[in-house]
Specification:
Number of strands: 6
Low-confidence stretches: 349-361
Helix content: 40-55%
InterPro entries: DUF2786 (IPR024498), DUF7168 (IPR055592), SprT-like_domain (IPR006640)
Organism: Candidatus Scalindua arabica
Distance between the termini: 37 Å
Shape: globular
Radius of gyration: 23 Å
Number of helices: 12
Structural class: mainly alpha
Mean pLDDT: 88
Strand content: 5-15%
Number of domains: 2
Pfam families: DUF2786, DUF7168, SprT-like
Order of helices and strands: HEEEHHHHHHEHEEHHHH
Protein name: SprT-like family protein
Length: about 350
């Protein structure tokens, strides 16, 4: 597919912006901006050509066929090469020598983001794949969530509580094992504006589903559109589960608002946000109550220090922000609270659009 020059210019502009951000975050503003180029070389992800050339190139094929977060990984990899040569002054070492590996480790930069595009993409996919042992864990959770579709409210609530307790026990058992665990990060949802509803859901999955999350800059290179996107961190199985819950809560919120509107014969969407705020607050409070029950069983989750370290290395200069929301209707908010307290996460949704919930077989 032929890429027009306007889009190519936009990509170079975005690569420059990302280079400057990474130089500040990971390399203490120690480097000078190189000549950034797009490469049409087949199969090569990116390349740093130092000395008097000072060229850093990124594959057009990579940008055209993969998400921008993949492009950033390759950019950071090539920047690590630039740092080793220009800042540390090491030129005689092998390209992926000890200094390079150390810089990558210190900043959670992928040292393998090089060479053939297909090979790296496959390697990255395998790194994010859930192990067979952990697949069994998720299978059991899915079976419990299938029971949560029961029309009997008590059975449904009990099934979801058991699913969450099972996940808690699994994650607590990981903390007792001293082996190195595989952590990944993934951007979920569309690039766009952050709103209070998405912010509440992201806080909820961080609090109860064993991941770290951050709202970060996102870029859709096909539309040349920038905005914010949610990035989550954790083990592959926890990231998959958190994404699942994030999608579910966005879609079920819209579905239940439409249901509430029809039941109450409400015209328009004026109080939509108030209802959804209440729904999510009610669900949050319900999960918080389960935490108290877990404590009584001596199941206390204090977080995963290794995950926090991985997250901190990827985000060394965190800026915390808060999000406030106001309710336009006390009645709608209270109705949402009531509905949220009885909300259960069913087996399988990945949304088809606003107000639609797709159940998996």
């Amino acid at each position: 597919m032929e890429i027009d020059n306007v889009l190519k210019t936009a990509w170079i502009k975005q690569l420059k912006a990302d280079w400057k951000t990474a130089n500040y975050h990971y390399f203490k503003d120690s480097m000078r901006l190189p000549n950034l180029e797009l490469s049409s070389a087949e199969g090569v992800l990116g390349k740093w050509k130092g000395s008097y050339h000072r060229h850093l190139s990124i594959s057009i094929s990579l940008i055209s066929n993969y998400k921008w977060e993949h492009v950033q990984e390759v950019l950071y990899h090539e920047m690590a090469h630039q740092y080793v040569e220009e800042t540390l002054g090491i030129r005689g070492e092998l390209p992926h020598g000890e200094a390079f590996k150390r810089i990558c480790l210190e900043n959670s930069i992928d040292p393998t983001a090089t060479g053939n595009i297909q090979s790296w993409a496959e390697k990255r996919k395998n790194n994010s794949t859930i192990s067979s042992e952990n697949h069994k864990i998720l299978d059991k959770v899915h079976k419990l969530l299938a029971l949560a579709q029961s029309p009997n409210e008590h059975e449904a609530q009990n099934a979801m509580a058991k699913a969450h307790e099972f996940l808690l026990k699994h994650n607590l058992s990981l903390l007792d094992v001293q082996t190195k665990w595989n952590y990944i990060h993934k951007q979920i949802g569309e690039v766009g504006r952050r709103n209070p509803i998405k912010t509440i859901i992201s806080a909820l999955i961080t609090r109860f589903f064993f991941v770290e999350a951050i709202w970060t800059f996102g870029y859709d290179q096909h539309k040349d559109q920038s905005g914010q996107v949610l990035e989550i961190y954790g083990t592959p199985e926890n990231v998959e589960m958190a994404e699942y819950v994030y999608d579910y809560l966005q879609n079920i919120s819209e579905f239940l608002w439409i249901e509430h509107k029809e039941r109450k014969k409400i015209n328009g969407n004026r109080h939509r946000r108030s209802f959804i705020y209440g729904l999510l607050d009610g669900f949050y409070n319900k999960l918080d109550g389960q935490v108290i029950e877990h404590k009584s069983k001596k199941l206390v989750w204090k977080g995963d220090p290794r995950l926090k370290e991985f997250y901190r290395r990827k985000n060394p200069k965190l800026v915390h922000s808060s999000s406030r929301y106001t309710s336009s209707s006390t009645d709608a908010y209270n109705s949402g609270i009531t509905r949220g307290r009885s909300l259960v996460i069913h087996k399988g949704i990945h949304g088809e659009g606003k107000g639609k919930v797709k159940l998996l077989n």
